What we know:
The structure is a homodimer of 191-residue chains.
Chain A: H1 4-19, H2 26-33, H3 37-43, H4 47-71, H5 76-84, H6 94-102, H7 109-133, H8 136-155, H9 165-175
The structure holds a DNA duplex (18 and 18 nucleotides).
Amino acid sequence: MTGARDRVLDAYETLLIGHGPGSATLDAVAAAAEVSKGGLLYHFASKDALVTGLLDRLRERSAADADAIRTAPDGAVDYYIRTSAPGGGQPGGVTRTYLAVLRIADGSETGQAVREALAVVHAEEYDALHAELADPVLAWIAQLVGDGLYLRTLTGTPLPTELTVDALLARMRRYLPDTPAGGRGLPEDPA
Amino acid sequence: MTGARDRVLDAYETLLIGHGPGSATLDAVAAAAEVSKGGLLYHFASKDALVTGLLDRLRERSAADADAIRTAPDGAVDYYIRTSAPGGGQPGGVTRTYLAVLRIADGSETGQAVREALAVVHAEEYDALHAELADPVLAWIAQLVGDGLYLRTLTGTPLPTELTVDALLARMRRYLPDTPAGGRGLPEDPA
DNA sequence: GTCTATAGGGTGATAGAC
DNA sequence: GTCTATCACCCTATAGAC
Lengths: 191, 191
């Protein structure tokens, strides 16, 4: 049985991703986490505290993910693109938390803290990609492609049917100086 | 003096982009548009109608922008990337409307209509890029890079200081089959 | 056409029992 | 630690004056 605190954060993430910030009320979060509203407010004294808790989780997971990017067996770009694509995130990984936090990055007062946390995540991702790619512009392009995929997930727009992440990666690999050996048997790029 | 209807939509966009959907209440929109709440509700009978009005504007502007992409003097990619970068959108252009609509793309009932409108925009952009680039995967990469820049604008994350849109475009141009002649005197890529 | 006033529903937060 | 009950507030939408 996982702790109530984590269940609450999981529920908050799920509601933010699936139904947006307007539906992620304290009542709805408590219900989804199977806690009473009072129980929720025992763990997180206010809605701001709930947001702060989610940001803390984001920072933890982002740091762990930066390591995962650096040590990914098929290379940083492969890992980053795959985890950015719709459905690519693991439960418990950064991706879900990141997508949830994106939805509360508004211009409000607490939104400021959210944006600062996101800036840190972006910088960590970039550094991890840069560590493998050396070329700053190339690292940036790789990150932007991944971020574009995040935006697709965010809006729920399906990927064009004739385009696959494998094809995307195969093409990007062409532009990269030299990714670590082997690979996972990607299809050859037909173009 | 522009019509009240357009002023209301402008104000709604501004609030969505600057302070998020939670702050874009009818009161706030009316105040920002310098109309009374009753006056606002005369033009848009409900909040849903306001959203619908914004989606209509998005569709109009997206169609116009797809043409602009196709006829851009420095090429489709140049145009798309530049208008996607933070600060690249013109007032009255798609970019602002698009960024505003992104914020209301939740999983609610009206959110469904929002997501469908966004899917149309994405498809139109892709087709316009594809028309110039021929290669589908390349068109997709160009679009994703632009979308990554949108995500940066959305979260307010500043671009890494050593990275400029000009450098990004110079590098991407290398990968493109052959962009229309001339260009705007872009700096040579130092790498 | 544009406004004021108000009804009705929902949200965040507190108090206090167990 | 977790729950129920309740308050004060804000938001959407309507009714009706001008």
